[in-house]
Design brief:
Number of helices: 11
Distance between the termini: 46 Å
Low-confidence stretches: 1-15, 227-243
Radius of gyration: 23 Å
Strand order of the largest sheet: 10-9-8-11-13-12
Length: 357
C-alpha cells in the first residue's frame, strides 16, 4: 500500500470518514489557519503514531502520512489536529493543542515524552485490590491537573472486593471534588456510568498500570472486542495488553485514546499540577512564616499546625514533598539538557559557517 493511500477495513464503509465536527474540530483550531491553509490544506486528527509514520482521520478518509521536514514522530501525539497536503499525503503542520498529556522522562534530550493531545477527561484506572496505590494515583492527578485535563478515577474489580467503598473513600481523599467511581468493568452498565464524559465532541483517555481493566473498559466504551489478559495472582499486577496509543470512536459521539500500562511515571515541569493535586497543603504553605519553609520543624509552619490539628494527613505531606523534590530535580535536569543542546547547536552552526568560507 503506498503512503497516503486510504486504509481499507473489513467493511469499507463511510464509517472510515468523519466530518470535522464529529472528530472534535472547534473554533480553537479554525482560528489557527490562515486563508491559504484554508484553501489548500486538509485538517485531520492523528489516530496512531508509529516509529516512522502516522495515520490520521479526516473527511477524506483514513490516511497514512509522511512528515514534512522538521516534524518527527516524537513531536506528534495521538489526538493532535494537523494540516496535511492531500495531493502529497504529507503532514505539514501540527496545530496548537488545547491540552497535552506528557511525562518527564526524556532528560537526555530536554524534552518531555508526549502521551496524548487534546484530551478533555483522563480516566485514571486502578483496582480494588493490591494494585491500589495512592502515590501512583497522585502522580497521574498531578499530570492531569497540570495539563488542565479533568481527572476521573475509575476503581475496577469492585465486584471482587469485600469493601469497594473503602477504596473509593481513599481515592476521594486525594483531591477536592474529585470524581471517583468503583465499577465492575465487565458489567453491562459501564457505558451508562461513563456517559457524561463520552458524548459528542468529547475526548477521553485511559491511563493506569497494566492489568486493572483498561482494555475491558475500552471495549465497553467503544463496542470493541480487543483481547484482554489476566493478572498475576501474587501481586495483582497485570500484563500489557495495549502496546501503543490509538484513537477510537465512541458510539455516543466522543473519542477514546487508549494508552499502554505505565509502571514508571516521572514528573517534570508540573509544579502547578502538584500544587493542584495537594490543595490542602499548597494553600496552607502560603501562610507559613518563612517562604522557604520545609514544613518540618520550622516555627510558624501552617502545614505542621494543620497536621497537629488533624486537618492534614501526614502521609499526604510526605508524598507531596517527594513529588516536589522529584519535580524540581527533573525540571533542573531538563533545563540543563536544553541549555546543552542549544550550545551544541550554536557550536555546530558556527563551525559549519566557518567551513563554508
Amino acid at each position: 500500500m503506498r503512503v497516503g493511500q486510504r486504509i481499507p477495513s473489513d467493511e469499507d464503509t463511510p464509517l472510515n470518514t468523519y466530518t470535522r465536527d464529529a472528530l472534535g474540530w472547534s473554533p480553537f483550531y479554525m482560528s489557527q489557519l490562515d486563508i491559504d491553509e484554508l484553501e489548500n490544506l486538509t485538517p485531520a486528527r492523528i489516530s496512531t503514531v508509529q516509529r516512522d509514520r502516522v495515520t490520521a482521520l479526516s473527511e477524506a478518509g483514513t490516511l497514512e502520512l509522511t512528515l514534512a521536514p522538521g516534524i518527527t514522530t516524537g513531536t506528534v501525539a495521538v489526538g493532535d489536529w494537523v494540516l496535511c497536503a492531500p495531493d502529497q499525503h504529507r503532514l505539514t503542520r501540527v496545530l496548537e493543542r488545547k491540552t497535552e498529556l506528557s511525562r518527564g522522562t526524556e532528560y537526555h534530550t530536554g524534552d518531555r515524552q508526549l502521551i496524548a493531545a487534546n484530551i478533555d477527561t483522563l480516566f485514571i484506572t486502578s483496582s480494588c485490590n493490591n494494585d491500589f496505590n495512592p502515590a501512583r494515583l497522585e502522580r497521574y492527578l498531578a499530570l492531569a491537573n497540570d495539563a488542565l485535563i479533568t481527572p476521573v478515577i475509575l476503581l475496577t474489580k469492585a465486584d471482587q472486593s469485600d469493601d469497594p467503598g473503602a477504596y473509593a473513600d481513599q481515592a476521594r481523599a486525594l483531591g477536592r471534588d474529585l470524581e471517583v467511581l468503583a465499577i465492575n468493568a465487565k458489567s453491562t452498565d459501564v457505558i451508562e456510568q461513563l456517559a457524561q464524559w463520552c458524548g459528542e465532541g468529547q475526548t477521553v483517555a485511559l491511563a493506569g498500570s497494566s492489568g486493572v481493566g483498561k482494555t475491558t473498559i475500552a471495549n465497553a466504551i467503544t463496542g470493541g472486542d480487543a483481547a484482554t489478559r489476566g493478572i498475576r495472582e501474587d501481586d495483582a499486577r497485570g500484563r500489557h495488553t495495549t502496546t501503543g496509543r490509538s484513537l477510537h470512536a465512541i458510539p455516543a459521539g466522543g473519542w477514546l485514546i487508549d494508552t499502554p500500562g505505565m509502571r514508571g511515571l516521572g514528573v517534570a515541569e508540573v509544579a502547578f499540577g502538584i500544587d493542584a493535586t495537594f490543595p490542602e497543603i499548597s494553600e496552607l504553605a502560603e501562610h507559613c512564616k518563612f517562604r522557604d519553609c520545609e514544613h518540618e520543624s520550622e516555627p510558624g509552619c501552617a502545614v505542621q499546625a494543620a497536621i497537629t490539628a488533624g486537618q492534614v494527613d501526614p502521609e499526604r505531606l510526605k508524598r507531596f514533598k517527594k513529588l516536589k523534590r522529584e519535580n524540581q530535580h527533573a525540571t533542573e535536569t531538563i533545563a540543563q539538557a536544553r541549555d546543552r543542546n542549544r550550545k551544541l547547536g550554536k557550536m555546530y552552526r558556527s563551525a559549519t559557517k566557518k567551513k563554508g568560507r
